[in-house]
Amino acid sequence: MTDPTDADAMTDLEGRPFAGRGQWTEPTTEQVAPGVHRVPLPLPMDGLRAINVYVLETPGGLTCIDAGWAIEVGRELLGEGLRRIGHDVRDVTRFLVTHAHRDHYTQAVTVRREFGNATIDLGVGDKPTLDLFNSGDLEADPTVARLRMGGAFDVAAGWEDMFRGADPDISMWELPDRWLEEEQQIELGDRVLHAVPTPGHTAGHFVFADHERGVLFAGDHVLPTITPSVGFELVFADNPLAAFLGSLRKVREMPDLVLLPAHGPVAPSSHARVDELLAHHDDRLEQCLAKVGPDGSTAHDVATELTWTRHERLFSELDAFNGAMATMETMVHLDLLASRGRLVRDEVDGTAVYRPR
Fold it and tell me: Which of 90, 138, 208, 252 is disulfide-compatible with 217, CB 3.0–4.6 A?
């Protein structure tokens, strides 16, 4: 049976195999559907290594699904990728950004500023995060407080050390031209994209389906080889894992489409990967429940009892960034269990403690 996440089993319009797991990050311009090209751009200081920007050719210019991180090498490689298909960055007239993480959003802002003819669409659920960036009130990283809520005090200190002095460039977080507020059809010449809100990874995440061409621009909602983080945003949304699982079911109810993810190779079946992600979280919820001690546990307590990544690493093997992500990921699972009545959640001196019911 073919692995549903194996892009090597797929070919482009000319019969050439798509870039697989080991090749998808390499600089290229890969046609993934009629009039649709994948341009991977590098990410600094990020285990994901690259982000896929999808370029759609339309009569009114180029539309990009996501934009990349606003760094010099990303801008250069975006230009090189577009020149391979006979275009230039100035030909981009619209960015449809799946969510407001910096590797997806910030280069859209800098390209808009550079040429003045590109517009940006973003899900309105991410408005609180952008409002916070632009308020002048971002004096402390909310992630530190979130980690302390999870009982991960040493991890919180490591997070502060890692980002001390690295204040965000607020100019990269200008507001979009349009807020996407609900499920809708977006017309791009003779192409129609079905824009679908999929909160969870962030509160404002959207995916875009091109049903005629059979592809799903999935952003970080459905990734082919890893599980997306949930709840990692500056303005924390209530019970984001419940929203994420609901969004996965929403995508499962759509037609089965070729998966065009923001990170990772092209995959043949959105349904197959959604089923895997739902099964993973069902299993993870049971693992988290089993690790809660009879006298109560924090998210950090539980996280240290679990293994991480597909390599089954111990928590002690993770660096400060990934230890923080693991703690926050565990906390959203415990919060969901509490909301379902399977755990009791109390706050003790600002720290969440979970107990068996």
Answer: 208
Do residues 109 and 116 make contact, with C-beta atoms less than 8 angstroms apart? no
How far apart (Å, rounded) are the C-alpha atoms in residues 282 and 117? 45
What is the phi-psi region of residue 90: left when phi exceeds 0, alpha when psi lies from -120 to 50, beta otherwise?
Answer: alpha
Radius of gyration, alpha carbons of the chain: 20
278: tokens are: 């739902």
pLDDT in tens, 54-86: 999 998 899 999 999 999 999 999 999 999 999
Q: What is the pLDDT of residues 269-281, one digit of tens each?
A: 999 999 999 999 9
Query: Is residue 158 situated within a structural domain?
Result: yes
Q: Tell me the whole-structure pTM to 2 decimals.
A: 0.92
Instruction: Report the CATH number at residue 243.
Output: 3.60.15.10
Total count of domains within the chain: 1
Q: What is the pLDDT of residue 231?
A: 77
Residue 58 resides in a domain: yes
What's residue 163's pLDDT?
82
Does any domain span residue 342?
A: no
- Read off the tokens for 186: 């977006």
**What pLDDT sits at residue 310?**
82
Could you tell me if 224 and 277 are in contact, meaning their C-beta atoms sit under 8 angstroms apart? no
Rounded to 5 degrees, φ, ψ at 194 are -95, 105
Residues of the chain with confidence (pLDDT) below 70 = 1-22, 45-46
Determine whether 29 is exposed, middle or buried from the number of CB atoms within 10 Å of its CB (0-12, 13-18, 19+): middle
- Identify whether the C-beta of residue 172 lies closer than 8 Å to the C-beta of residue 353: no
For 183-226, give the DSSP string.
SEEEEETTEEEEEEE--SSSTT-EEEEETTTTEEEEETTS-SSS
Show the domain range for 20. 7-165+174-270
Q: Indicate whether 189 belongs to any domain.
A: yes
